[in-house]
Design a protein that fits this description.
The chain has 1 helix and no strands. By secondary structure, it is mainly α. It has one domain.
Length: 54
Protein backbone atom coordinates (compact mmCIF):
# COMPACT_ATOMS: atom_id res chain seq x y z
CA UNK A 1 0.00 0.00 0.00
CA UNK A 2 1.33 3.43 -0.85
CA UNK A 3 1.62 6.30 1.62
CA UNK A 4 -1.26 8.25 0.06
CA UNK A 5 -3.64 5.27 0.20
CA UNK A 6 -2.99 4.89 3.93
CA UNK A 7 -3.58 8.58 4.65
CA UNK A 8 -6.80 8.57 2.62
CA UNK A 9 -8.00 5.51 4.48
CA UNK A 10 -7.14 7.07 7.86
CA UNK A 11 -8.99 10.26 6.87
CA UNK A 12 -12.03 8.25 5.80
CA UNK A 13 -12.10 6.31 9.07
CA UNK A 14 -11.74 9.52 11.08
CA UNK A 15 -14.57 11.13 9.11
CA UNK A 16 -16.84 8.12 9.55
CA UNK A 17 -16.10 8.01 13.28
CA UNK A 18 -16.91 11.71 13.63
CA UNK A 19 -20.18 11.28 11.75
CA UNK A 20 -21.10 8.27 13.87
CA UNK A 21 -20.40 10.16 17.08
CA UNK A 22 -22.39 13.13 15.82
CA UNK A 23 -25.35 10.85 15.10
CA UNK A 24 -25.14 8.79 18.29
CA UNK A 25 -24.59 11.59 20.82
CA UNK A 26 -27.97 13.37 20.40
CA UNK A 27 -29.73 10.01 20.24
CA UNK A 28 -28.16 8.81 23.49
CA UNK A 29 -28.94 12.17 25.11
CA UNK A 30 -32.58 11.84 24.02
CA UNK A 31 -32.79 8.29 25.36
CA UNK A 32 -31.27 9.40 28.66
CA UNK A 33 -33.75 12.29 28.82
CA UNK A 34 -36.71 9.97 28.22
CA UNK A 35 -35.35 7.57 30.84
CA UNK A 36 -35.02 10.40 33.39
CA UNK A 37 -38.59 11.57 32.73
CA UNK A 38 -39.82 7.99 33.04
CA UNK A 39 -38.06 7.61 36.39
CA UNK A 40 -39.50 10.91 37.61
CA UNK A 41 -43.01 10.06 36.43
CA UNK A 42 -42.92 6.61 38.02
CA UNK A 43 -41.73 8.20 41.27
CA UNK A 44 -44.64 10.66 41.16
CA UNK A 45 -47.21 8.00 40.29
CA UNK A 46 -46.01 5.37 42.73
CA UNK A 47 -45.49 7.60 45.76
CA UNK A 48 -47.82 7.30 48.68
CA UNK A 49 -49.87 10.38 49.63
CA UNK A 50 -47.77 12.61 51.87
CA UNK A 51 -44.43 11.24 50.68
CA UNK A 52 -41.80 13.75 49.70
CA UNK A 53 -40.41 13.60 46.16
CA UNK A 54 -36.64 13.65 46.43
Amino acid sequence: MSESTVSVRVAAVACATALLLAAVTPASAAVKNVYNWTQLWSAVVSRAPGDEII
